[in-house]
Amino acid sequence: MTANGRFQAWPWHAGTALAALAVLAPILALVGQAGQGSGAHWGHLLQFVLPGVLAQTLGLLIGVGLLAAALGVGAAWLVTAYDFPGRRALSWALLLPLAVPTYIVAYAYLDILHPLGPVQEAVRALLGYSSPREFRLPDLRSLPGAIVLLAFVLYPYVYLTTRSMFASQAAHLMEAARLLGHGPWSAFLRVALPLARPAIAVGLCLVLLETLNDIGASEFLGVQTLTVAIYTTWVTRSDLAGAAQIALVSLALVTLLIAVERRGRRRLRYTGNRRAAPIRRHVLHGPAACLATLLGLAPVLIGFAAPAAYLLALVLERLGTGQGPSPALLRAVGQTLTVSALATLFALAIGLVVAWSRRILPRVHAWQGALPRLATLGYAVPGTVLAIGLLFPLMAIERGLSALRAATGMDPAGLVLLGTPAALALAYVIRFLTIPVGTLEAGLDRIPPSLDQAARLLGENVHGMLRRVHLPLLRPALAASALLIFVDAMKELPATLLLRPLNFDTLATWLYAEAARGTYEEGAIAALCIVVAGLLPVILLARLMDRPTA
Amino acid sequence: MLELDRISLSYPTDHGRRTVLRELSLTLEAGQIACLLGASGCGKTTVLRAIAGFEPLEGGSIRLDGRLLSGDGTRVEPEHRRVGMMFQDYALFPHLDVAANVGFGLRRLDAPERARRVRALLDLVGLSGQETRRPHELSGGQQQRVALARALAPEPDLLLLDEPFSNLDVDARERLAFELRDLLKAAGRTALVVTHNQAEAFAVADRIGILQEGRLAQWDTPYGMHHHPATPEIAAFIHREALLARRAQANLRGAPPAAA
């Protein structure tokens, strides 16, 4: 077995194993750390902290879940089953709220709906009141307020999965229901909705994971969620063990969500891959058509157009006074781009190792098939939980490096990873690794195996095949995942807040600090930058969605 | 000369392993064209994959012009076997134009030499002037010729062809079967073709092998195969198409249909 130039499989196996380990390390460290905490700690936690926090978190999850599901499924059915003016434009515009991170929608609406803000002023003027003391709308800073705002930016996950399910559903099943005596409404409830249930479950899981991950919106709106509790326990009370214990509870919730989603996805297989004629759209006229257009437009207006326009107005106003962005903000822009680019580069490289190994290596043991799945679990771990989990292995590595430097006669002081942009980039890579792995695996699946064999028989070894055949064919997949990772890294807030170095700001943390101070002048610039960047992947998604094979 | 000596091979399945090739032996003289004929699932394509080096043998050996390729603990990597293959789906690289596809295996030549060789091969297969076209712009027959030119380019000691005509329409098949034989003979290549269509096999081959359940049931010239089938099953297999044609003619003449 020593033919010269023989392909060595172990570096690729090792690369995949290392990626899986990097993702698992924070989770395992967290479990270990929480286990070490004193029992008294748990007692205190269970008695005083968790009941309130869990009640708020579950309330938020249930509320956001219900409202986002209703909005997403309703919008998907509207553009699938009916035809009305603006339907085509709406079918992709309904994705736009994806561009607005939860903390930005909260940030914008706090100002828009402020008792002294434009909306309440207008309502008062309309009703003839002169002062906020005489009349004001219910306070946005409440659990219901948070539910509504989060649902209006997160519903596109449900919309996306459900719409493609409705579109691929056999139209004749609906027609059969109609012929069996069901009206359109009853056919929707008894045929279309049950068939789409797995797709709804998948989309809803993403909504709930994002809700659990959110820190900015919950905090701005005064909702004490698990994520907020982790943050304040660590940052305000400097109680790392307590934060780790709350993080563990959050992790348990995530595990539950993923288990439910996996069940939903399993059933997706049986209903999703049927190629059938699309549902014939019912053409609406007159007032009904008007109503449909308005219904479809409402989520786009509330979730995207209103906050984006408001931010734009604030920015224009500021630029109109001749004041550009401050140097500190410009520095934050540079730091955001640098750390996002770094994370993108590493995530792409590691994603390529994981996805390509799966293609190329013979699977001898079951665990070799499980490793890539483990390596993509990071997306489910809330950012704050990930940050705390990462802390322990990073501290261990720092201690090791410091000892190494001392042993070799160098200055043992100084940190290499902790408190540097490298730790931040690492957190992004772990959290977003599922993007390049998933996209590249899908791209590789589209390359027939005969191309691999042809390349080999024409004299290329395995690495030559990667370089001359796979990489050129994967270029669109590489570009798409680079864009998605980059923008997600740019928007990331919770992990960034906890892991960023001193005096290091990304656009997201800059905005967070501005909002905490209640200053809106420069924060709006940062927010608008993030929203505009967030539009790029939405455009990409919309284009993929319109492709008939997607 | 290709020598397969009692090769055995099995695939792992959910319930243990499924034997695909059982002690299969055959010898193909240099410059000859052989066809392996058999129903789907009889292991034809597996023979090609084993010769190309994509399937490890469990027993036996494969030699090409005296070189040991597989067996006795040796497994030469596919890229070092000097074996070319034309794939059922042609496997043309979609990101490369015709010239780059044909020149893919000529990395070791310098650019002018490679261009000369590509031009000569495209001449041979009748595709001169199509160098800059992409695979998806070509018809099925043209793609097949590009695939053939590409496989011939590194001057392999053996050419493997997997169902070379299955992606073509019926009219093109017959014409191209004769054309392929002429091309292979002109290039002086030893070739092993796998097909389930006996008309193709009889049109192309110097030697025909019948594969049944992983064994070589008969290995003979087309004449010998047709006139002296080794077993009643082979006779039935060989003459089934003739039988079908006769029945179809009878139906067209208005004979009463057979009971369903």
UniProtKB/TrEMBL annotation, chain B:
<protein>
    <submittedName>
        <fullName>ABC transporter ATP-binding protein</fullName>
    </submittedName>
</protein>
<keyword id="KW-1003">Cell membrane</keyword>
<dbReference type="InterPro" id="IPR050093">
    <property type="entry name" value="ABC_SmlMolc_Importer"/>
</dbReference>
<keyword id="KW-0410">Iron transport</keyword>
<dbReference type="InterPro" id="IPR017871">
    <property type="entry name" value="ABC_transporter-like_CS"/>
</dbReference>
<keyword id="KW-0472">Membrane</keyword>
<dbReference type="InterPro" id="IPR027417">
    <property type="entry name" value="P-loop_NTPase"/>
</dbReference>
<dbReference type="InterPro" id="IPR003439">
    <property type="entry name" value="ABC_transporter-like_ATP-bd"/>
</dbReference>
<dbReference type="Pfam" id="PF00005">
    <property type="entry name" value="ABC_tran"/>
</dbReference>
<dbReference type="InterPro" id="IPR003593">
    <property type="entry name" value="AAA+_ATPase"/>
</dbReference>
<feature type="domain" description="ABC transporter">
    <location>
        <begin position="2"/>
        <end position="238"/>
    </location>
</feature>
<keyword id="KW-0547">Nucleotide-binding</keyword>
<keyword id="KW-0406">Ion transport</keyword>
<keyword id="KW-0813">Transport</keyword>
<keyword id="KW-0408">Iron</keyword>
<dbReference type="GO" id="GO:0005524">
    <property type="term" value="F:ATP binding"/>
</dbReference>
<dbReference type="InterPro" id="IPR015853">
    <property type="entry name" value="ABC_transpr_FbpC"/>
</dbReference>
<keyword id="KW-0067">ATP-binding</keyword>
